[in-house]
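Consider this pair:
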Amino acid sequence: MSCGKNNNSGSCVIDILKDIVDAQNDVMHDCTTSCEQSIADLLGDTGGGSGFDTVPVILYCKDGCKPFKGFGSTRSGNDCEVRGSFFFRVKSVDNDGCAILELLLADRWGRVDSEDDEDEVEASRHHRGHDPNSPADQSCRNLRASGICITVDLNCFCHVTCLPAAATL
């Protein structure tokens, strides 16, 4: 049994994420559940154009049902910084249940000035969601696209939580 509205792969996680991709790509949907509400908000079904472009999601692994944390890196010149996140934007889902997810980063406490000392910079990086220990460590306000994408097998997940639709790009 599937909980996705337009798909029937046999996996509700796959089907919901396919629905989110469809909505993010072409914006037309009728919804009632939490993920469907976020999709409706994205599409502006709840009161005109929303300005939102993303339904952020949290995925839960089958084994132990813990929130999934993805990691990726960015390169700036010769520097490479690894970042972690529990929040994702679904970029695509194929028919085999393979998905490309973009890590979404929180900017909870704002930017750090280059004149700040090293301890303040490191503390701010942790607080801004560079390496959160749980989804509760990341603010879902002011999420931003990271440009860091990972590929996952959606058959490894048993649960998806949708956060409120957001403008991330």
Summary: The CA atoms of residues 91 and 100 lie 5 Å apart. The radius of gyration is 17 Å. The longest strand covers residues 144-153.
